[in-house]
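Note to self: the last two entries modelled the partners one at a time, which told us nothing about the interface. This time every component goes in together.
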Amino acid sequence: MTIATDLALRMERVSKIYSVGDAQVVALDHVELTVDADEIIALVGPSGSGKTTLCSIAGGLLTPTDGSVIVGGQDISQYSAKQLTRFRRESVGFVFQTVNLVPFLTASENLLVVDEIGPRTGRRARDRADQLLGELGLTDRSSNLPAQLSGGERQRVAIGRALMNEPDLVLFDEPTSALDTQLGDQVVNLIRHEMKSRGTAAIIVTHDDRITHYADRVARIVDGRISDPGARDD
Amino acid sequence: MKLALRELWRRPGRFVVATAILALIALLLMVLGGLLDGLVAGSTGALRAQRGQLIVYSSTSQESLVRSHITPSVRKEVEGVAGVSQVAGIGSVQLGARIDGHGPRDLVPVVLFGYELAPKGLPDAVPAYGEVYADDSLQAEGVEKGGTIRLGPARTPVRVIGFLDDSRYSGQGTLWGSLATWRSVLAANRPGERAGEGVDQALVVRVAGADAIGQAGAIDGATSGATKTLTIAQAIDALPGVSQQQTVFNQIIGITVVIALVVVGLFFALITVERIGLYGVLKAVGASSGILFAGVLVQALVVTLIASAIGVAASLALAAAIPSGSIPFVATPSRLLTSTAYLLIAALLGCAFSLRRVLKVDPAAAIGGEQ
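The predicted structure of the combined assembly is written out below.
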């Protein structure tokens, strides 16, 4: 179902409960969260607070036990696994903590993976990959394998891959955790620049205080509840 | 798909072991098949070369040429059956042959056939008395056109006037002459089995219609049960040892295919386990299980095709290297293609072991580890 909205993400009373043996673990408890179309949110909270679960549900990796999740106007709460696969391919981008590029593909091919796993667009996808690599300062490195790239370059390739499908929302999972201070700053700057220049919303799951300064808003989550949704810099 | 092919191309080392093992299995499969084909061809060539559709044995012969005995009166009854267009006598005798250039005790086992209806590869005219055509496998034993072979303890001479191929019988080279030549050689060397004038061991029958099996029944009915008539295929199956050879070899081939299936299954199951993290990421960015499993299948098929190509090349090299008449091995295109097809099917089934793992990969595992 498509809903007309200016929001990149709207989560309403979203709960996620896991069954562990006879016990039930509440990972998210009636979470309410909205993200504007070009807003960058830093999602912070202690380990086990539910940050990753929230991110996974917003990205269509998990389905909520209860509540509604609307991403870019699509209510994905009741999507089947097949619908979620298509949704992830077309509407969201991910940058994972460990980067996770395909090791035997070049930087350029890692971007084109997103096209190859769906209905192929060929030339258009290649042009977009070239454009993104150029914008990310990786034109000269497009033929290099991940093992031939520095940590920062790999992170930039991962960002490029997340932007290939022109997503409504990009989810970053601890994007600076494996980087030193200087590189971490560069990457966060780059994320902000890329998101703002495209008007794309982002949620950045982090423990890193540096990131909170670059975000438009810092949402805090504790024990599966948003304890502070943060104030927008209006 | 492209992703899977790129991995094969860029990381060939990962697939070398599986390819090498599968190539050895392919070679084993093709050698076993080639040996079976060679053994069967060497046992049945004389029957396959017949131009008739039916062979008429005497009913007490237990479908064995050497035990069979057809009298002129029975032959007349067969000739009188409606639909029978040609009846020709055939006889055989197994003997040791002395060939020029071999020592006096160095006998080459051969089967001499007497015939009226020329087998495939020979002219219609039956050779003159004392002249024979030889199976070309005997050339490896030193038999030459124009040469003389002395048969059996009586050392009955026959002169070779030409060659024909693929006519071996019971694993032995064959000689093809007139029924008169056969009777003469038989009488000189196996006096106890002497065949009188007009007596044949069996009859080769050509029928007008397509219903050869129906005609066989009609012939046996017309002779009041004095004959047992078989199609050529039935006569081949009735040869001692042929069906047993086929059964045993086919069982070994079946087990080899199962081993190939297990090798492919285990290899790609292990590779899939190694790739669970990568598959999680690819699923997270929108790859379906079907796309990922198709990649596994493509890799298994390519590895199997490469292994089969190596097996085919090795089999052809082996067939070329084996001296004619030494080991009954033939590498036929149909056998090589069938073996490749078996391996491809084994690869596809073997990959099914990986399907469950691919389906179970959770894309959520790609993003963090905490809840």
